Amino acid sequence: MGTKAQGTYAKGIERRRELLRIAAEVFAAEGFEGTTLKLVAERAGIKEATLFHYFSGKQDLLTAVLADRDEQNSAQHGGSVTSLADFPGIAEHNERHPGLTALFAVASATATRPDHAAHDYFRTRYSWLLGTVERDIAGAQARGEIRTDIAPEDAARLIVGVFDGIQLQWLYDPATSMPAALSSVLRLLAPQG
Amino acid sequence: MGTKAQGTYAKGIERRRELLRIAAEVFAAEGFEGTTLKLVAERAGIKEATLFHYFSGKQDLLTAVLADRDEQNSAQHGGSVTSLADFPGIAEHNERHPGLTALFAVASATATRPDHAAHDYFRTRYSWLLGTVERDIAGAQARGEIRTDIAPEDAARLIVGVFDGIQLQWLYDPATSMPAALSSVLRLLAPQG
């Protein structure tokens, strides 16, 4: 690419990121059903047709917003979202972003239908997340930091399960502490005295 | 009530239950979005207008189906859904009813929006469920069956959290064992050797 093409490319990336930020705000405030591409385009000050240069439709836009949230979480934690000790911190971060957290909870549940556009995204994400946490657990067990009477795979399922399940409790009752629940499950997994 | 009125009343109850059974099947197969009152009425062999004698709309019908599922679960376990040892069995039951389980997972997430018709149903249900499990935990701790270095409230949040979270993992990957996850968390809560 020449310098001019590179500049155009970089500008496109930057523009896309800005659109994702705006879309995340709209999804968070209006929910998936209440969000329209028209509304996102209006907030971004562009025509709806222009939005289609970047995203093929509303479900594609949602998937892009969710993937971008993963990337940002990952960047915040030095490229790894899933060091075990980071979980309470991620939960704390999510408590400060209730709209996106609710969006994620609703999207991950509705996308369990195989015909949902975000189905493959979530299936792949769970498989990757569970595999990563499982490896972290196995390492922590080898270092004597996690009790060894539970299989790494089962422990990973519990941690990720508590993360998703406590989110729901928190959405119904904001007095719920998500970081405390994550800390509790990690404490139960500590080697027995 | 005279005998005739009683007969009519009993018939109405029976008819309502039958409609809930049919609606549950339609919701399970079509999802909330795909379900229409017209379709439910067709399957029941009645007019859509007749359905409105029993339910005020689709969200009311959904709430009634969910409440009926709770009642049936409760009846199966001698009137109490939440004896701790019952959780793996309830998860096993849910694995045999994937459609209703998916419906429940999606409905509990989408109803986190305060304007959703099932919001109050789920908020009340979580509050009741967490309170009941918390009391069960406290009793089990007093009997020396659950470790005492975790508050009953926190343990209740973990069990209910794992129940909801593992459901999602199972919906994306049917190789997931929900009963095994519930057994794992109960094992972690056992008194330390």
TrEMBL record, chains A, B:
Q: Which PROSITE patterns match?
A: HTH_TETR_2
Which Gene Ontology MF annotations are present? DNA-binding transcription factor activity; transcription cis-regulatory region binding
User: What SUPFAM superfamilies does the database record attribute to this sequence?
Assistant: Homeodomain-like, Tetracyclin repressor-like, C-terminal domain
Q: Which residues bind DNA?
A: 36-55
Which range is the signal sequence, renumbered to this chain?
A: none
Question: Which keywords appear in this protein's UniProt record, sorted alphabetically?
Answer: DNA-binding, Repressor, Transcription, Transcription regulation
Tell me if Acetylation is a UniProt keyword of this record.
no
Which residues are in the HTH tetR-type domain?
13-73
Q: Per its record, how is this protein called by name?
A: TetR/AcrR family transcriptional regulator
